Amino acid sequence: MKNYQMLIDGEWVNSSNNETFPTVNPFNQKMWATIPQASDEDVQLAVKAAKRAFENVWSKMNGLKRASLMFKLADLIDKNATYLSKLETTDNGKVIRETKTQMHFAARNYRFFAGYADKLNGEVIPLDNDELLDYTLREPLGVAVLITSWNSPVSLLANKLAPALASGNTVVIKPSEHTSATTLEIGKLVQEAGFPDGVVNIVTGDGKVGDTLTKIKEVNKISFTGGVKTGVIISRNASENLIPVTMELGGKSPNIIFEDADLEAAIIGAVAGIYAAGGQTCIAGSRLLVHQSIYEEAIEKITDKAKGIILGNPLDKATEMGPVANEQQFKHILSMIKKGKEEKAELVCGGERVINEQLRSGFFISPTVFANVHNDMSIAREEIFGPVLSVIPFADEEEALTIANDSEYGLAAGIWSKDVKRIHRFAKKLQSGVVWANTYRVTAAQAPFGGMKRSGHGRERGYHALLDYTQVKNVMVNLSNDIRDPFSIQV
Ligand code: TXE
After folding, report:
1. Secondary structure of residue 267 in the 3-state scheme
2. Which of 34, 230, 255, 304 has the smallest number of CB atoms closer than 10 Å to its CB?
3. Nearest residue CA, atom 22 of ligand 1?
4. Distance between CA 164 and CA 159 in Å, rounded?
5. How confident is the model at residue 111 (pLDDT cuts 50, 70, 90)?
6. CA–centroid distance, residue 151 to ligand 1 (Å)
7. What is the CB < 6 Å shell around ligand 1?
8. How far is the CA of 214 from the centre of ligand 1 (A)?
């Protein structure tokens, strides 16, 4: 049993009221570590430490030095990737082959943004009046609060922490109460890399801790990954202090197979979209839209694949799908499957808890396919965040577009077609922050990621993420000796 502590101002501490909560392995439902439940006082201390570190150290350190610390952190994450991935898999049940890749991808993200730390230049702007010199400075915001969810703690954190640090902000991190361990391990690596005290602080606990954190006046920025309901609460808190937020929320992403697609490749893409990570990803391609001429064939093929998925211990390299990450999520998925049946979607396979000898102690749900789904049904509208695919037929491009965009979400979408004109035409019309063509669930440090509509706003990864952690200052310098008219604005 491990007993974790929190990181505040460079010190590892218990909660000031000594409260803790257990963290549970979803594969066997065994408690394996305790995590501190931060008090309001702890949260205040963490923000104060971040503010001090911002004012006294981090905002004064030059970009090259910030970058070198971030490169060290990236190296340490790579070096410890095996350890970190085993821990993350133990904590959230995600298969080891994915968590291992995610650790290296997190390191890649720190390197990508480290490369920007000494290149945050402003610009010189030519004005109508050439006796005025105008230029901009790109400056950090101050203390950034980073709140993450349980599905990919290290990877989600890298999306936020890397651009925040590169652009000169200090941070207070609050990981999900379901999976705090690996974030705290990253805290240890931050220290080993040599970051000054107070630049990175980590407080742990439930939603109350997040709520306290997002109401503090000294906080200058919030970046959140989680559910829509929480996103709304946090946005409300942020609006009281008029601070900017980045919201990375859920999705109900359409993965669209046209009649001219390479069907084999499209079906693999559909599997990647919904069964990878057991569907517990914001970009899950949970609505599979299929042209009616290939609908039956596609159902047959995806069902075959779904039935063949290897469920098992997520620490085992052969396992393709692990358990659902926690009990709350497990119950939610089962309740959505029940709704699907009640609304008369056709359950083709799966749809139940797996209770065989080896898996019955874990939160396993069999890969599920619902056919003849109408886009008005709950399973096509609400985020399930589990291995549940809704297959919806369409007659033509226009109908596919109408169905795809008929969602309150707008995070990701996939198009499968050999017609290059159709791909670009369609990509332009999709209401989605991310569009893949002839692939799905592919990511890159350089490519901006984020949603439209109720999937959120702001962008993570790529150059665009830096813009969310900086503000622009405009400086105008008079070069002339003319005496101005003080009662008229000068142009
Ligand atoms: O998320 P929450 P949950 C979706 C998915 C899932 C649903 C709920 O559909 O079924 O959200 O999941 C912190 N102020 N996604 O309940 O509650 C919380 O402690 C500040 C999509 O796990 O949003 C945790 O650290 N913070 C998503 C974080 O918010 C608060 C990934 C996320 O928890 C808070 C996960 C409050 N009032 C779930 N209440 C994605 N975008 O990928 C909670 N938190």
Report:
1. helix
2. 304
3. 149
4. 9
5. very high
6. 10
7. 147-151, 174, 176-177, 206-207, 210-211, 214, 225-227, 230, 233-234, 248-250, 282, 329, 332, 383, 385
8. 14
User: 376 CB contacts (<8 Å, ≥6 apart)?
Assistant: none
Q: Among the atoms of ligand 1, which is closest to the Cα of residue 147? A: 25
Q: Which tens digit of pLDDT belongs to each residue from 293-304?
A: 999 999 999 999
When the pLDDT of each residue in the chain is averaged and rounded to a whole number, the result is 97
**Does position 313 have pLDDT exceeding 90, yes or no?**
yes
Question: 254-437 sits in which CATH class?
Answer: alpha beta
Among candidates 311, 391, 301, which has minimal Cα distance to 353? 311
- Reply yes or no on whether the pLDDT at 357 is more than 90: no
Give the start-to-end residue ranges of the domains of the chain: 2-249+455-475, 254-437
Q: Tell me: the pLDDT tens digits for 195-253?
A: 999 999 999 999 999 999 999 999 999 999 999 999 999 999 999 999 999 999 999 99
Residue closest by Cα to atom 33 of ligand 1 = 226
10 Å Cβ neighbour count for 447?
12
Ligand 1 atom at shortest distance from the alpha carbon of 176 = 25
Q: Enumerate the active-site residues.
A: 248, 282
Give a three-class secondary structure readout of 313-324. CCCCCCCCECCC
Distance CA 335, CA 354 (A): 15
pLDDT of residue 218: 98
Q: Which residue has the tokens 């592919």?
A: 442
State the CATH class of domain 2-249+455-475.
Answer: alpha beta
> What is the atom index within ligand 1 of the atom nearest the CA of 456?
41
CA of 369 to the centre of ligand 1 (A): 26
Q: Which residue CA neighbors atom 20 of ligand 1 most closely?
A: 210
* CA–CA distances in Å: residue 78 to residues 158, 185, 405: 13, 13, 39
